[in-house]
Design brief:
By secondary structure, this protein is of the alpha/beta class. The protein has a single domain (about 15-365, about 445-450), classed as Alkaline Phosphatase, subunit A (3-Layer(aba) Sandwich). Helices cover about 25% and strands about 20% of the residues. The strands form four sheets. It has an eight-stranded mixed sheet, with helices on both faces. A four-stranded antiparallel sheet has the order 12-13-14-15, with helices on one face. A two-stranded antiparallel ribbon has the order 3-16. A hairpin with a 2-residue loop joins strand 13 (about 375-380) and strand 14 (about 380-385). It is globular. The two termini are about 25 Å apart.
Amino acid sequence: MAAIGVASGLERNLASVGLPDLPTTPRGRPDILLVTIDALRADHLSSYGYDRVTSTAIDDFARHAVRFDNAIAQAPYTKASVASIMTGLYSSSHKTVTASVPFPETMTGHPKTAPIVTDILPAAVTTLAEGLHQVGYRTLGYTANPFLSEAFGFAQGFDLFRFYPGPDFAGAERLVADALDAVHHARPAVPLFVWVHLMEPHSPYTPPPWTAGRFETTMGAPQPIPDRIPIPGWLLPGSPRDRRLYVAAYDDEIAAADVAFGTLLRGFRDGRWGRAQAIVVTADHGEQFLDHGGWEHGSNLNDELIKVPLVIKAPTLKPGIIHAQVQLVDILPTLLEFAGGSVPPIAGHSLLDMARGAASTSSPALSEIVGSQYALRDRGLKLIDFDDGRVELFDLGRDPFENHDIASGNPAEVHRMRGVLNRMLQQALQMGRTIRSERVPVDPMLIERLRSLGYVPQH
């Protein structure tokens, strides 16, 4: 297979490559807006209890919507997590799991033997965009994350898909402006599905001028970072070894994403005035600041990386807060049910009954770093099972920050939860049995972009 390149401002009319024409749709089908915010941990939003006012627009939106207090991502990094959102499948089913490596020695920029390849979202899966297109939606997607490009399979089902390449992540204001331009020119009679993936507050922590420095005056006492702990050079170049500065800049970026969300929300409502609308805001994963010894994301399954915001506003939903545990794989069936589409066999379950006031019951939540770590949250406990045989157990009610491993004193509970975890993994593997992993060579331009962002080793 030839290498897949990355085009600037990619626009594709997928009807020309086999996507069926838009069918006739019943009146009243709601427009759908899905906003995913990269690397946004739930506990840094004001509406989720954070003491800084980072998220005025999201907070106001949440007051008039259904807010889920315990939403769990299926992976602690973008590619696998968004694949789960878009398919309703666990990572072990959809198999879109490579973060950046393991690639062969060619990842050093000096290829000698095998080509540089990565897995992609398989064509065999039915994505959210495909399911909505099948019931009459025009589908629009906007992202600046290189792992969510057409090259990695994420354009499936989109009539218009734009990925913004470049040396740095495209700012939220650019994606929002382009999305709203398309919304304002869309045919009023055809329902829209719009997906916008905002890169703030992903590292590097370089907030725009209108939010930069907003939280420097509320940093509190110094938090020196020991010399033995390395700091990735791209996070906040040239800054002193004070943890507060990194957290403050991250919060500045959350505020920037919040401003963009508010602009997108107003423009979407105004541009489609008079139409029913279902709006979802969530995150692909969180971010860590030495909570468990690391930076950024992708390295563990602690809650700072997998507990994310999830807020849904839609016709027939009464505003409120749901404390029951849910998962990001539940988004696809929820939105397809809104749209009147059919839901394929998946791991997720629709949240509509719960959001409409039915009794809410927590379900076990599975998160994965495939081949390395697996986490189960169930009955207020959290089990992390490592591929080397180690296991950790936390009582989230008494120890929400996962500081005290109680596995050694609770062998029966470890045994029970390992049994639940293994059954869920077995079901995920069975569900993915007919989904063949797909791999493609990676364009050298994309490799350089990933390298510049710290995903790929330097030369």
